[in-house]
Amino acid sequence: VDRFLSLQLSISSGLSAAEVKTMKFLCRDKITKRKLESVESGLELFSILMEQQVIAPDQLGFLKGLLQHIKRRDLLLLVEQFEQAELHAPDDQPDEHEKPFDVIRANVGRDWKKLMRELGLPEVKLDKVETAYRYDLEEMVFQALREWQKWKGKDAKVADLIKALQGCNLKLVADWIED
């Protein structure tokens, strides 16, 4: 079962008709009036927000804002727990990047964000990692690399890591990975 859809179902089942109405009102600038008129449940609203690419598993800010506005801290907590679970979810792919990740983790340090931007990782993912591992720099680097790997999927190549390291003037680390 898709965890994000399950989250939406849990939130929707906890909403009253008045809360759905308030959320619809708050979505007027995101969804056309015609579409909003047909919405009768949280699920229908979330479905449209997903179609409009306003919410996604890695893009939950708007949803969290809606839940804060209707003062549903309990439902907001579900979203935050989902975010944490996503951040710590085991990766299903075999990890050919393990050695390069360890080299990068041990040698990149505070330049990790620069490297991740060079790899094209979205800012929202960087912020998520930074928040979760605020006091452990090496773990921040490692988890950011895993986020990049999950984000790129089969397109995550060691060659891209090397090129990004060189682009950040971390040529020595890039050389270590090539060896």
Automatic annotation (TrEMBL):
SUPFAM superfamilies the UniProt entry points to: DEATH domain
Family annotation (PROSITE patterns): DEATH_DOMAIN (PS50017), DED (PS50168)
GO MF, one example: caspase binding
Domain DED: start-end pairs: 3-81
Superkingdom to which the source organism belongs: Eukaryota
Transmembrane intervals: none
Pfam families tied to this protein: Death, DED
GO cellular component terms listed in the entry, alphabetical order: CD95 death-inducing signaling complex
Entry-linked SMART domains: DEATH, DED
Leader sequence residues: none
One of the GO biological process terms: extrinsic apoptotic signaling pathway
Domain named Death: residues: 97-179
InterPro entries per record: DEATH-like_dom_sf, Death_dom, DED_dom, FADD
Name by which UniProt lists this protein: FADD protein
Organism of this sequence: Loxia leucoptera (White-winged crossbill)
Lineage: Eukaryota, Metazoa, Chordata, Craniata, Vertebrata
